[in-house]
C-alpha cells in the first residue's frame, strides 16, 4: 500500500498514470586499474512499500546491462559499512564489496552476465 502515491505521481506529460517506486543515478567514470571507462552508480533506492517486488533488481540490472552494452569494464559505487542489508543485496547481485574503501565493484564475469539477461529490460511499471 503506497500512502504517498500522489506525491510520487509522474509529472511527465502523457505519463501521469506512472508512479515512482525507486531511483538510481549513474555517471560516467574511468577506472585506472582496468584502463577502461566505467559507470559510477549513486543513490540506488527503492521506496519501502515497494521492496521485495524486484524493483531493486530491475534498477541494478538496467545499469549493469547498460554498462555492458556501452563496453564499460566496471560499475562501482560507495556504500556505508553499517548498511549491511544493502551490502548483502549488492553481493547477491554479483558485486564485490571492499570494506577498507566502503566500495562495491561489479566487473568481469559478473558484469558480463547482465549483458546476456533479457528478463530485466527497462520498462515502465504501472500501479
Ligand atoms: C537494497 C534494495 C535496493 C533492494 O531492493 P528490493 O526491490 O527490495 O530488492 P528486490 O526485490 O529487487 O530483490 C532482488 C533479489 O535480492 C534479494 N534481496 C533483497 N534485499 C536483500 C537483502 N537485504 N539481503 C539479501 N538479499 C536481498 C531478494 O531476495 C531477491 O532475490 P531473488 O532474485 O533470488 O528472489 C532496497 O532494499 C533499498 O532501496 N534499500 C535501501 C538502499 C540504500 O540504503 N541506499 C543507499 C545507497 S547505497
TrEMBL record:
What domain of life?
Answer: Eukaryota
Q: What is the lineage of its organism?
A: Eukaryota, Viridiplantae, Streptophyta, Embryophyta, Tracheophyta
Q: What organism, scientifically named, is this protein from?
A: Solanum pennellii
| Keywords in alphabetical order | Acyltransferase, Transferase
Is Cell cycle among the key words of this record? no
Name of the gene:
LOC107028298
Domain annotation N-acetyltransferase: ranges: 1-121
Q: What is this protein called?
A: Probable acetyltransferase NATA1-like
| Pfam families on file | Acetyltransf_1
Amino acid at each position: 500500500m503506497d500512502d504517498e502515491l500522489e506525491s510520487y505521481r509522474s509529472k511527465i506529460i502523457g505519463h501521469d498514470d506512472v508512479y515512482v517506486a525507486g531511483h538510481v543515478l549513474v555517471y560516467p567514470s574511468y577506472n585506472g586499474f582496468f584502463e577502461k571507462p566505467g559507470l559510477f552508480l549513486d543513490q540506488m533506492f527503492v521506496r519501502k512499500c515497494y521492496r521485495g517486488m524486484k524493483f531493486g533488481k530491475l534498477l541494478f540490472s538496467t545499469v549493469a546491462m547498460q554498462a555492458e552494452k556501452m563496453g564499460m569494464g566496471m560499475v562501482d559505487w560507495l556504500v556505508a559499512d553499517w548498511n549491511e542489508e544493502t551490502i548483502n543485496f549488492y553481493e547477491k547481485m554479483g558485486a564485490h564489496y571492499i570494506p577498507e574503501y566502503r566500495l562495491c565493484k561489479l566487473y568481469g564475469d559478473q558484469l558480463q552476465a547482465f549483458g546476456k539477461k533479457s528478463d530485466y529490460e527497462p520498462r515502465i511499471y504501472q500501479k
